[in-house]
Amino acid sequence: MKQKTRFDGLDVAGMTAQVRQTLLGHKLANVYDGMALSTSISGDSSGKSTFVFKLANPSANKENDGNTSASRNMLLIESGVRFHTTSFYTTSDNNSVPSPFAMKLRKHLRNLRFENITQLGNLDRVVDFRFGSGEKSCHLILELYGMGNLILTDNKYVMLALLRTHEYVANKEEEKDAEEEVKVRVGNVYPVTYATTITKSSTNGENEEESTTKDSILDMNGKEAYEWTKSELQALVEKQAIQAQLANTGGGGKKKGKKKKDLDGSATLKMILLKPNSGVFHYGPSLIEHCILSAGLEPTTKFTLDTIEDFMPPQKFETLIENLQVEGSKIIENFTKGENKGYVLYKEKTKKDADVSEVLKNMPHSDKMFEEFQPHLLKQHANKPYIEYHNFSMAVDEFFSLIEGQKRAIRAEAAEQSAIERLDKIKKDQSKRMEGLEVEMEKVKESAQLIEMHADDVDKAIGVINSALESGMDWDALEELVTVEKSNLNPIALLMKKLMLEKDEITLSLPDTMNWDQDTEDTPTIKDVTVSLKESAYGNARQLYDKYRISKDKAEKTVEASEKVLQAAEANAKRQIEEAQKKKKMSYSTMMSIQRKQHWFEKFIYFITSDNYLCIGGRDAQQNEQLVKRYLRPGDAYLHADVHGAPTCILRAKRRRTESGATEVLPLSDQALREAGNFAICRSSAWGARMVTSAWWVESHQVSKTAPTGEYLSVGGFMIRGKKNFLPPVQLEMGMGVLFRLGDEASVARHHNERRDFALMALEQAAEERAEANEAKTESQSKQEKLPKKKTTETSKPKQSKKSEGAEGTKKQNKKASDSSSEDKVTDAISKIEITNEKESPVASLSDSAEEKPKKKKGLSAKERKLIKKYGSLEAAEEILAKVRKEEEEAKKRKAALNAEKEESNSQHSEASAANTRGKKAKLKKKAKRYADQDDEDRELALMALQGGSKSKKKKGGRNIEAESESQLKAASEAVALLVRDSKEVVQKLAPEIQDLLAQIVTVNDEVRWNKLDAEVLENLMTLEVEAQKAAAQRLLQLSQTSRVDNFSASLAGIIRTVQKYGHQGLNDQKESENDAQRGRKTKAEKEAEKEAWREILAEDGIIEDDGEGNELSVDDTAEISKLTGKPMSDDVILYAIPVCAPYSTLAQYKYRVKLTPGNLKRGKASKQCLEMILRSDEVKGKGPDPNQRYLDMIKNINDNEWVQAMCGDVKISAAGASKAIKKSKASKKNKAKKNK
User: pLDDT digit string (tens) for 158-188?
Assistant: First the structure.
């Protein structure tokens, strides 16, 4: 059976029903490229047609008792193949930039709620995902047939982006030969009538009318179905005859014979029912086969026009039609009832396959070969083994994950077998070469021995030839003489076989008497020996013996070399076999294990400082650009070094929410800046050059992408304006450590004080002391004000002189009190200035905070003396300063009024374009401010200058306007009529009572505005029972009367989902209670918590929301990085481990760490050695492996690529305590040597 590789119509129906039940109401947080998860079936071989959608429900944390992972779901969509939720997701490389299509999806869909999912047509493989409500809604259309496609449209189904542009061919009705193209491209309306079977039963270019009552086999009786089948067979015969004629004219012997065999006019019942005009082809092959088997027929039996009456009489068609009506509709209805279990069919592996996959016996399902996934067990699956899953999505997810793992395992097994065969071939070549050398050596030795045995005859032969040559005889005459002497049976001439006078050699045929038994009647064998005419017989023998010795030495060397070659080949083959076996094991473990979601900062180089600040840096120029544009916030520090290759580093400032809800930036510490500077230096070329230098930092507002006039900045380059703050030089020491992700709040609480920010603690303590001092001061002042009044009342009875003295004393005290009050005002103003300056500059040191402690002032301060010297007295100074402040406030008000007028005038130009644009307010404000002085004429001249002095042509959707064909316009109008439904028409189908309730909700100034409710939401409302519809409408009416509802359609959709999940009983019984908690409405605190939860979900990917005014609602990184620890405890719940490369001083408290200094070891080899040293670290420290085994297992599960990506290049490795261990081992060896002596 052929393995199933993509969805059919039945699978799409089952998955659509499950996604509708589980994911509706979730918000889209992000979109990722899923190239690592793509299969080889999709049309795009590069894997760029696979995407992973992160859907999250921020309000689900409360329902799941704070379990945030339960509110996140990953929806995998592969164009042309599948869509389902996944737990084995692996997004594309974190260092890579998202694809343009993924960026387009993020732009239009992020933060929108997933409102609806629909399968278009009659079980067609086209799915419509709707995000958002009203005019801002967008549709994502997935095509799962052919090469597939993924299309993003607006609420009117106008295409905004798509993966693949193509055309449909449409024939004109008037002219049969004339053809027009219906183009699928950006700016056009999605041609649903060509992509699906909503109004057309074929998309092959044939213009067929919408099906009538007798066009479907379900509406026929047995006899009509029989006649229809005969007509289809007749059409098949005619078509095959034409194909045969074309094949005959084209020639080709074997191919012609094969086609003749296939073109016999026969067809199966399954093939006939899968034709587009059958009326049931949308059932798909699986469901049609199930219905045929239920009717007691064979789906694969072939019949022709001549045999149809025997195999398929009209009576059997009656039974078939009945089963198609009953079984087909029954299975499709099961999906809507919530029965969405999943099944995977498999076959057991053969013994041969099991032997090959011996190493995989502990892997899940390693003894099975997956064949097919199904949302429902059909008739043809009755006798096949299967695995049942809780839902269909789990079955599909595991099926595709496992078959990819099986493919990788097969490739690994092939590599292993190839390595073994290569090693055998090398062994055979070496043995063959040695055998050849030995044979040659024996031949040389035997030749030398034969010459010695027949030395006299050899000398005579050499002498005869030499004498003839010395006499001047011609070579040809000499050969004739030898031939004549042979005929005369001359014994010496008979020994001569061949004369090679050009080489001064002759070949003699000598009898081998050494191995000849004289007692036998057999004659000795004759062997040919070549001798030199320049040497005697013994001279020739000596030469041959020398050659034998040389060959022997050569053979010995060859044996030694072959042994080395074999050892190297065996080692190489062993390494390749181990790698192949490792890949086989990892092929299942990586695909069948739930993949962790990587943190947003892992795509950069990063580390966490010892006082819990996050520092991130760019790996290349593109990442440097991305860091500054997306992740540099107000209050952060930009760090760099004047060394080639130094990365752009950002030290992220801590933030916290104030009581008013605003975000307060906390100051950075000196220690964090020093560690970040060390990180920037060690990641530059100074590391390889072993050069100790300094890094510098500036504030975020000093970094700009605007170059001076006449200059330009390349990618990753920035302009720094203002003073650079240089840091002290540091040693070139880095370390490789392991961070562990904590899994629950109790574990995080145990590590609360692990990375303390002492500078921040000192600042907070100083602020508390200042507050206490101010309170004490105010109390003392109030007491001093009460004391003079008591003295004057007690001394009212003495004499007049004492009264005058008392009056003078009170005047002096009042003067001192007024002076002290003026001093307090000045000091208060100074302290306010200091506090604001503190907030503006993000860096504060511990020494500064200590100096800011309040001290008792004696006399006037320097500031007060300056004020008195300038204005004469403090009272005069206060009056003048008050006037200055008042004038400044009036100037600010006038400026604000002018700006408001400009904004109103500019908003008139941009109001129409900005009405339907999301997130563009800040950009429009900047544009209005920049071009405030530019009128229409100046704007037109500027545009003409940009376009080379000619006016631009009008464009539509970013392209030139082209005359659209009639077929294109017709397809657009049909698509709008079918897909874009009118809310007013849909609401008429509801009960009058429900219409009245909805009308009360959307009535504004006595006008019923039905467009405030989406037609799709009203259709979903119609699927409920009448009582449930009434309860939902009453609930929406109640909400509209008691609170502000911004989006009626979204609110009604949420109520419908609640009714579908929990029922409508008691939905409106809560209206009598005034308590929000009893009523079920969210309080303001719950809404704020939900917004905060959503910001945290976005912050996982480094996404920073703004409030629409350009103000970022930044989330503090501390909450996320506090869940990472380098000192795991035995009671901690740990999810996974992450490698990190950081300055060695920050890893002092880490359990597993390795020290790195500049060296010659490359990253790949260094990462492996680091892993080995970390795994041995417990043994070096003398600890048992059992308590730490789970930590080591998590470290082993870290991917090799993660180690390599974290490692810095060209290092020398040394672990803590390794030198002591080496000294101990050397000392123990010396002691053993002494004892042996």
Answer: 999 999 998 888 755 444 445 678 899 999 9
- How far apart are alpha carbons 17 and 22 in whole angstroms? 9
Q: 60: closest CA among 24, 88, 105, 17?
A: 24
Q: What is the distance between the alpha carbons of residues 622 and 819, in angstroms, rounded to a whole number?
A: 62
Q: What is the pLDDT of residues 937-970, one digit of tens each?
A: 777 777 766 655 544 444 444 444 455 778 888 8
| Cα torsion 194, 196, 197, 203: sign | positive
Specify the amino acid at residue 225.
A
Q: Is 369 exposed, middle or buried (0-12, 13-18, 19+ CB in 10 A)?
A: middle
The model's confidence at residue 726, banded by pLDDT at 50, 70 and 90, is: very high
The pair of structure tokens assigned to 226 is 């029989």
> How many other C-beta atoms lie within 10 A of the C-beta of residue 1050?
19
Instruction: Yes or no: say if 661 and 671 are a contact pair by the CB < 8 Å rule.
Output: no
Q: Report d(CA 126, CA 140) in Å as an integer.
A: 10
Helix (H) or strand (E) holding 150: strand 149-153
Cα(948)–Cα(935) distance, integer angstroms:
20
CB 842 within 8 A of CB 637: yes
SS (H, E, C) 1070-1107: HHHCCCHHHHCCCCHHHHHHHHHHHHHHHHCCCCCCEC
Crossing angle of helices 758-794 and 670-682, in 10° steps, is 160
What local confidence, expressed as pLDDT, does residue 442 receive?
84
- Dihedral sign, CA of 832, 833, 836, 838? negative
Helix residue spans in 110-202 (DSSP H):
192-195
pLDDT tens digits for 544-602? 888 888 888 888 888 888 788 778 887 888 777 777 766 666 555 555 455 677 788 88
Look at 757 and 592; give whichever has higher pLDDT: 757
Question: Residue 1025, Cβ neighbours under 10 Å: how many?
Answer: 10
Residue with tokens 């059992």: 1186
Q: How far apart are CA 985 and CA 990, in angstroms?
A: 10
In terms of C-beta density within 10 A (0-12 exposed, 13-18 middle, 19 or more buried), how is residue 125 classed? buried
Q: Which two tokens stand for residue 1008?
A: 């019923």
The pLDDT of residue 254 is 44
- Mean pLDDT across the chain, nearest whole number? 76
Higher per-residue pLDDT: 176 or 759: 759
C-alpha to C-alpha distance for 651 and 648, rounded to whole angstroms: 10
The tokens describing 171, both together, are 């024939």
Contacts of 453 (CB under 8 A, 6+ apart): 510, 513, 514
> Is the separation of the CB atoms in 39 and 400 below 8 Å?
yes
